[in-house]
Amino acid sequence: MTIIKDIESSQDTARGAVLLGTGGGGDPYVGELFLRKQLAAGKYPRIVSVDDLADDAFVVTVAGIGAPTVLVEHLLSEAALTSLLGEAEGFYKRTIDALICAEIGGANAMLPLAVGAITGIPVVDGDGIGRAFPHLEMTTFSINGCSASPGILADDLGNLATIHAIDNRATNVMVRALTGALGACLYGVLYPMTGAEIKRVAVRGTVTQALEIGREIRLARERSPDPVSDVVRFLDELEEERCSKLLFQGKVIDVTHETRDGFHWGQVTVESLGGSRDTLTIQVQNEFIAARLGERVLATVPDLICVLDSETAEPMTAEMLRYGARIAVIALSASPALCTPRALEVVGPRQFGLDMDWQPLDRMQ
């Protein structure tokens, strides 16, 4: 069991969650402040291994849902979240034994930790993606047959809705419609599962992985004149079956942001500072979904495309990017669970409107 007790560990986890969020998931800053408040009150989140769950344990996801550009403007309400958990237990007629992140990226990595600290409910060391994705059905939970519904949604004003859907795509449509109608920001309790199901479908170890990545970024900039290279090297050695590479470094010369249909859409253009006229473009649909050097594709979903500050290696969300920012664009290959033919039918490039098939990062030129 891992227990987060200090501000530095909280900040490291948030930093790692930004990197794993690949531009999306919402800025975890507000969630980290919320968790820090609980730490100051002596309330600490407990992170438990997937293997420590009883097979009959009742586990749910708790997440913020909406456009990252809107989520970052909302302070988290302790009353709204505790009320939602209480409503959920009444709705399911079960005591919630553990929480799990729907996605480890961004704010949705911090929200379950804060809720776990408030309620005393442990948080599973794992999630359903190993990164962030914009659609509710884009999870290993869904890919492996677990239903997102029935679920319960709430906003800060006390509006409450329950969802019963025939499949997870329908759940996503219904949730997105509600999100768009209620200000592009909701809280949701979804994916009711047993401990046995979590053991079968979760991407394991990702909460402590976020903590380790965030700590490494902090230490790299303290010890190294080139922290970006240190971080890429660390990520490349993180797991045997995954690789990492530096794709591009330069200055943002154009960026567009649009909040539409409950999503953040955009494009970022980066110009090389090395004297060449090379430009890199990054497409955004909540997350960074494709990186191209001219016409050449360097990386696409489900692999993780991440943007770091060139000098500090601090990871950045898509909504943070502005004209003139000096950035490094790196890529980390996705968890193998997202790279099977079955998974690619849900999280591959074509599901994001990209007219291309996925190619493994280590085969990209």
From TrEMBL:
InterPro entries cross-referenced by the UniProt entry: S-Me-THD-like_C, S-Me-THD_C_sf, S-Me-THD_N, S-Me-THD_N_sf
Taxonomic classification: Bacteria, Pseudomonadati, Pseudomonadota, Betaproteobacteria, Burkholderiales
Domain S-Me-THD N-terminal, first and last residues per copy: 12-163
Domain of life assignment: Bacteria
Organism of origin: Paraburkholderia agricolaris
Any Pfam family matching the protein: S-Me-THD_N
Domain S-Me-THD-like C-terminal: 167-361
Membrane-spanning residues: none
Name under which the protein is recorded: DUF917 domain-containing protein
